[in-house]
């Protein structure tokens, strides 16, 4: 099932952290502690990893609003890869002429836990069950 709609981005829900460290094997979130990388999905210690986008957007049209999770598509918004985006910040977290996401940031925000659990549990092409959160009802389609 596919849906088509025309909407505008009204907010980036996670402008401070639109990226995550992903296992190169399964694309699921890995945990980097000191120099050890653990992938719980592959049950691998010292897994190879890469930086990937996971950007949550609020989009709206003239009738309603919806929440969308993007994986690879944010490169079209930022003009760079996830790794380049992270590299655009210095060690203190200050922008070094990198992409500016704050123009879309939402003061309300969303509860990140249901989204992270839902998105990282999906394989590419899978659609989540209906998720009911404080901010509304959501369905996630993982496309990358």
TrEMBL record:
Every copy of the PpiC domain together lies at 27-144
Q: What is its EC number?
A: 5.2.1.8
Q: Name one GO molecular function term.
A: peptidyl-prolyl cis-trans isomerase activity
PROSITE patterns in alphabetical order: PPIC_PPIASE_2
Catalytic EC class = isomerase
Q: Which key words are in the record?
A: Isomerase, Rotamase
Q: Which reaction does it catalyse?
A: [protein]-peptidylproline (omega=180) = [protein]-peptidylproline (omega=0)
- Top-level taxonomic group: Eukaryota
The protein here is known as Peptidyl-prolyl cis-trans isomerase
